[in-house]
Each structure stands twice: as structure tokens, then as C-alpha cells.
């Protein structure tokens, strides 16, 4: 797998609570890649937490930072990047994501809701009805997540290690298809 990827970055996309960070941290050492989290980089650049950025500067300012960080990190290779759930919203971001392999961790909304219960770090979930909010975000975003190169459907019993194995299996399928076409 490593030799086929040739240092090409992996970008994990998907809703908040889909496990991108945990899975990216498992995948990186397996591929001898470096793990990065776009949200943590945004916080470093801004010198503020994500809730602070949303509260003080608004979502649009956060999205600008997100694009800036992505544009800079895509210049590097050998990265597994856990992205923020909304990274797929900006068309310009796709021009960066498409340099690598884009993997969608597809988790049912009920599972997301369970995982995110009590979370205070996601400003978009500060809503009187977080379940309805999650559903509406997923409705708006599903067609964009579907543009990923690879989709991994996550079941309620799947461990992060199993999901990481599933990601590698799906990537190896598309790499094989690609090799067979050429
Ligand atoms: C967001 C997801 C968050 C973070 C921000 C906005 C979104 O990242 O980028 O709160 O729009 O879905 P995670 O997906 O890592 O929670």
C-alpha cells in the first residue's frame, strides 16, 4: 500500500463525531505518514479555540482560516489529515483535497448524536435540538461527502482499528482499479 500511495496525502472527511481524528491517528503510523488535524492547525494559527473563533469572528472567518490552512498543508506529502466536518462546503477546498485521496467516514446520524452528546466544543451543535441540527447538516452535506474517492460505512460496533483497516482496504481497491486502467 505504502509504495502505491507514493506519499500521496489522505484526507479524512465526514461529519463531526465520525471518528476522523482517531482513525487518522491509527492510519498515520501504519503508512509511515504524519498525522495532522486541520482544526488544531486553525486553532494554532488563530491563537484561539474553535468556539472562540466562531463567537468572536463568526463562521465565515472560521471558513476562511480553514481554507488557508488546507491550502498550506496540501503542499506537503505523507500526511493523514483529519479535516473539519464542513471542509467540503467550499468549492476551493476541493481543489486542494483532490491532490490526495479523499476518504469519507460515513456514520449514521443516530450514532453521531450518541457520540456528540454533551459535547461543548462544536459551535454548530449549540442548538436547542442538536439531533435535528445534525440531520439538517448531513442533508445539506451528503452530496458533497459523496464526492470522496472512497466511502467507508461505519457500523455501531466497529472499532477505530477496524475502521482504519476498512479505509486501507477501500483505498487499495481504487488504487488497483487505477493501476489496471493504465
Ligand atoms: C465543523 C466541524 C468541526 C469544526 C467546526 C465546524 C462542521 O470539526 O471544524 O466546529 O462544520 O461540521 P470536526 O468535524 O472535527 O468536529
From TrEMBL:
Reactions listed under catalytic activity: shikimate + ATP = 3-phosphoshikimate + ADP + H(+)
UniProt EC number: 2.7.1.71
CDD domains to which the protein is assigned, alphabetical: SK
Keywords associated with the record: Amino-acid biosynthesis, Aromatic amino acid biosynthesis, ATP-binding, Cytoplasm, Kinase, Magnesium, Metal-binding, Nucleotide-binding, Transferase
The species this protein was found in: Oscillatoria acuminata PCC 6304
Binding residues for substrate: 39, 63, 85, 141
One of the GO BP terms on file: aromatic amino acid family biosynthetic process
Keyword Signal in record: no
PANTHER family linked: SHIKIMATE KINASE (PTHR21087), SHIKIMATE KINASE 1, CHLOROPLASTIC (PTHR21087:SF16)
GO MF: ATP binding; magnesium ion binding; shikimate kinase activity
Amino-acid positions noted as binding ATP in the UniProt annotation, renumbered to this chain: 17-22, 122
Cofactor: Mg(2+)
Coiled-coil spans in chain: none
Listed InterPro entries: P-loop_NTPase, Shikimate/glucono_kinase, Shikimate_kinase/TSH1, Shikimate_kinase_CS
Protein name: Shikimate kinase
Amino acid at each position: 500500500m505504502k509504495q502505491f500511495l507514493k506519499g500521496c496525502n489522505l484526507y479524512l472527511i465526514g461529519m463531526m463525531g465520525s471518528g476522523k481524528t482517531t482513525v487518522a491517528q491509527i492510519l498515520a503510523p501504519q503508512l509511515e505518514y504524519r498525522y495532522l488535524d486541520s482544526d488544531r492547525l486553525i486553532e494554532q494559527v488563530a491563537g484561539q479555540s474553535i468556539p472562540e473563533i466562531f463567537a468572536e469572528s463568526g463562521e465565515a472567518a472560521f471558513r476562511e482560516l480553514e481554507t488557508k490552512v488546507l491550502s498550506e498543508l496540501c503542499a506537503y506529502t505523507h500526511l493523514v489529515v483529519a479535516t473539519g466536518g464542513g471542509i467540503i462546503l467550499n468549492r476551493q477546498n476541493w481543489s486542494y483535497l483532490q491532490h490526495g485521496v479523499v476518504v469519507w467516514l460515513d456514520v449514521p446520524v443516530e450514532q453521531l448524536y450518541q457520540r456528540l452528546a454533551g459535547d461543548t466544543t462544536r459551535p454548530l451543535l449549540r442548538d436547542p435540538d442538536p439531533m435535528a441540527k445534525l440531520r439538517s447538516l448531513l442533508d445539506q452535506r451528503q452530496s458533497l461527502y459523496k464526492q470522496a474517492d472512497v466511502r467507508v460505512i461505519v457500523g455501531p460496533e466497529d472499532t477505530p482499528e477496524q475502521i482504519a483497516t476498512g479505509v486501507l482496504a477501500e483505498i487499495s481497491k481504487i488504487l488497483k482499479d487505477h493501476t489496471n486502467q493504465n
